Amino acid sequence: MPSLSDQHIVLGITGGIAAYKSAELVRRLVDHGAEVQVVMTDAAKAFIAPLTLQALSGRPVRDALLDPSAESGMGHIEIARWADRLVVAPASANFIARLAGGMASDLLATVCLATSAPIALAPAMNQGMWSKSATQRNIATLKADGITMLGPNSGDQACGDVGPGRMVEPAEIINHLTISEKIPVLDGTSVMITAGPTWEALDPVRVLSNHSSGKMGYAVAAAAVAAGAAVTLVSGPTALDPPPGIQYRPVRSAEEMLAAVEQDISTCDVFIGVAAVADYRPARSETSKIKKCADSITLELVRTPDILARVAQQVKRPFTVGFAAETDQAIANAREKLHNKGLDLIAVNQVNETNNPFGSEENHLVLISQSDEIDLGRNSKAVLAEQLISEIAHRYHDQHST
Ligand code: C5P
User: Fold this and answer.
1) Which has the least CB within 10 A, 49, 76, 120, 358?
2) Residue whose CA is closest, atom 4 of ligand 1?
3) Do 217 and 341 lie in a common domain?
4) Is the CB of 273 under 6 A from ligand 1?
């Protein structure tokens, strides 16, 4: 079992119906060997009794900033210093706004402000509140401040709405904590990642492309940086900001992506092809805009280079990982791709009614190698990216220790 033994974890609980999941989270943290100090806001106490959390954590719950008895013992600064990690689950819209504003208006916000420990938030709120630009601004501010967001997931909400805003499950939070506990695992290695779609020009104003948002590839790049790797991200056009601390190589077409990959691939230890590279491009890209005269036109398409296969075919090749988005017989088709392209590992996302990864914050990944198959399940792309990087790191090190 993954271990958090000797980890001091402060679990912040704010007001929201998802607070009922916090009891399960405390129990699992304790099972993983962590020492847990629960800090609650007043609103949280309307949803779950402090006594429940005290019984599960074995420590009195802390809730008051101005508490003379606590200040002589474990006051807010002591809690901030004691913490190795701080997790707020659920994190309400109100709490997120207070944190983004640097407020020290209650014990939990004050501990977050005072601590130098890493902070992760598991937001939980109504989908309309989550989507509001004020909340999204606050989330962007907190991410820029180095705070990790776990979720939220999409689905049925307690209020009857359907959409993003459900708190991630306790198991996903534990996964995040145990995986980040093990980093850095790719220290000293160089990792190249392709991401996003490609644009294949028809004429100066039109392109052939696909629905890839780049979110999965960017999450993998962020997880690889967190794991200690030197990361090069070769990205087709997306609306995303490149993760901090990487070499960023923006490209448009498959040909440009190949050229950027070939430039640095000889010094890479790991290559992860997450990009949804166009398989075909127009045989000609017209120099002037195609006029709408004829009732129909026929486009001739030609194959683009298979970047992943070319990387895998190199004599001195990196540990090579591909992605496969499949609508039918996903596992069998991906296994064939693993074999045909000569990959070390392939991550399969099934595209069907329950999982359409394009543009979504979530995905469902299955990892396949020559010798095993691991279903990582459905999760946020950030958590899946951490799990994928952890798997790659173990396999890369196994390969290089023999
Ligand atoms: O063969 P298929 O396109 O399904 O394979 C998907 C995998 O191959 C992905 O990892 C993708 O990044 C990579 N690929 C590539 N160059 C192409 C087509 C796919 O690198 N032209």
Assistant:
1) 49
2) 324
3) yes
4) yes
DSSP state for residue 197 in the 8-state scheme: B
Which one is catalytic: 112, 159, 268, 293? 159
Residue 185 lies in a domain: no
Task: Say if residue 65 is in the same domain as residue 37.
Answer: yes
pLDDT tens string, the chain, 402 residues long: the values are 446 888 999 999 999 999 999 999 999 999 889 999 999 999 999 999 999 999 999 999 999 887 776 655 668 889 999 999 999 999 999 999 999 999 999 999 999 999 999 999 999 999 999 999 999 999 999 988 889 999 898 888 888 888 889 999 898 888 788 766 655 689 899 999 999 999 999 999 999 999 999 999 999 999 999 888 999 999 999 999 898 889 999 999 999 999 999 999 999 999 999 999 999 999 999 999 999 988 999 999 999 999 999 999 999 999 999 999 888 899 999 999 999 999 999 999 877 777 777 778 888 999 999 999 999 888 888 889 988 998 999 999 988 876
Nearest to 194 by CA among 280, 277, 318, 264: 277
| Amino acid in position 307 | I
Q: Any catalytic annotation for residue 293?
A: no
Distance 277 CA to ligand 1 centre (A): 6
Does residue 39 have its Cβ closer than 6 Å to ligand 1? no
Q: Does any ligand 1 atom lie closer than 6 A to the CB of residue 196?
A: no
Is 1 domain-assigned? no
Same domain, 160 and 208: no
In angstroms, what is the span from residue 172 Cα to ligand 1's centroid? 29
323 pocket-lining for ligand 1 (C-beta < 6 Å): yes
- Of 112, 147, 179, which closes a domain? 179
252/47 Cα distance (integer angstroms): 50
Q: How far is the CA of 202 from the centre of ligand 1 (A)?
A: 21
CATH number at residue 229: 3.40.50.10300
Q: Is 308 in the pocket of ligand 1 (CB under 6 A)?
A: yes
Which domain range does residue 162 map to? 8-179
Q: What pTM, to 2 d.p., does this model score?
A: 0.66
Question: Tokens 């396999």 — which residue?
Answer: 395
Strands (E), 53-97: 85-91
CA pair distance 402, 398, nearest whole angstrom? 7
Q: What is the CATH number of the domain that holds 120?
A: 3.40.50.1950
